[in-house]
Design goal:
Blueprint lengths: L7 H4 L12 H13 L6 E4 L7 E9 L5 E9 L6 E7 L14 H4 L3 E5 L39 H18 L3 E11 L1 H12 L4 E7 L6 H7 L4 H10 L4 H9 L3 H5 L5 E7 L7 H10 L6 E6 L8 H17 L1
Parallel strand pairs: 4-5, 4-6, 6-7, 7-8, 8-9
Antiparallel strand pairs: 1-2, 2-3, 3-5
Helix pairs in contact: 2-4, 4-5, 6-7
Length: 325
């Protein structure tokens, strides 16, 4: 894929207006208050997957509307508590899979919670958490148009609420230092990382968002294919719905959420990414308040992998340095 988005110098200053509605903060305050009315009830049951140096647990907590959300919780066996905690969110179509796929952060010495993604896990790694809510409107196959005709019923309202509650669950565990909570994820997981940093600014201290999804959405749906094509295809059929659809997605746009973050940020983007375009990543990144420390890794020749394993190596070292500064 050749370079197709804004040139690098324009990306570095690209800061479109936040698409937020006047009731944006009230909407999310009410949404999270309703979720928090249900006991978090973070439970961890030991499981044996043959990882002898890691304590592995089947985790469950209450997310949106109290629905029980699954995950994997892991601790290094040899540790000095309390530990900094990393909560990780999954890319589109992925479920939690199996614990041995997620040992990077725990072997680096962190308490680790991987959140399963409601309703997903049927197209890539398997998932364990159903989505118990109907979309309330006809939708294009996938998740991005489920319930899109109203912010209250939109799929990503539920998912972002789950993500906040996952961070709260991790922070509640006695082995975890609640003052050192890190959020991370790739693509859809990167979008959730941006969201949680803005929705729980007092909790999330570090946000490492790789090629985040759902940022500068109105531009992205006209620029690239990939998952954004679900929304474009929906609008190509429901031509009368554009105003309402764009209003709905404005409530979950990473641009508006990054604007509210207080977490030290480390983003990544690939300049040839035709799934989550670099202009969307920079739009969110540039909206992080100027007094918040932030860095972005830019990979000129990368697409949606945005540095791949090389960048993951950089993240491990970068986070290690954060705690020693």
């Amino acid at each position: 894929m050749p370079l197709f988005d804004f040139p690098r110098d324009k990306l570095e200053t690209y800061k479109p207006p936040s698409p937020e509605q006047p009731d944006f903060d009230d909407f999310w305050a009410r949404t999270l208050a309703e979720a928090r009315a249900h006991p978090l009830d973070f439970t961890v049951e030991p499981v044996d997957f043959g990882l002898r140096l890691i304590e592995t647990y089947d985790a469950t907590f209450s997310g949106y509307d109290g629905q029980r959300i699954k995950g994997w919780f892991m601790l290094p066996k040899n540790r000095m508590e309390p530990l900094p905690g990393v909560v990780e969110y999954l890319g589109y179509g992925h479920g939690r899979g199996y614990p041995h796929n997620w040992i990077k952060w725990v072997t680096a010495g962190y308490a680790y919670l991987l959140m399963d993604t409601r309703g997903q896990g049927g197209a890539a790694t398997p998932g364990s958490t159903p989505d118990l809510f109907d979309g309330a409107n006809p939708s294009h196959p996938g998740f991005t148009t489920q319930g899109i005709m109203h912010p209250e019923t939109y799929y990503y309202r539920r998912l972002y609420t789950d993500a906040v509650r996952a961070a709260e669950a991790l922070a509640s565990h006695p082995a975890v230092d609640e003052n050192r909570i890190v959020a991370t994820g790739v693509s859809q997981g990167g979008g959730m990382t941006v969201a949680v940093s803005g929705l729980a600014p007092d909790l999330i201290k570090v946000a490492m968002a790789d090629v985040p999804f759902m940022c500068d959405i109105t531009r992205a749906i006209t620029l690239v294919a990939g998952v954004y094509n679900e929304i474009r295809r929906y609008l190509s059929v429901h031509r009368e719905a554009e105003e309402q659809v764009l209003k709905t997605v404005s409530y979950i746009d990473g641009v508006s959420l990054a604007k509210r973050s207080r977490a030290r940020a480390y983003y990544s983007t690939g300049l040839m990414d035709d799934i989550c375009p670099p202009s969307g990543v920079f739009a969110a990144f540039n909206h992080i308040p100027d007094d918040v420390p932030k860095e972005i890794a830019v990979y000129k020749y990368s697409g949606h992998d945005a540095g791949g394993d090389y960048h993951h190596m950089r993240k491990l070292k970068w986070l290690q340095d954060v705690w020693t500064q």
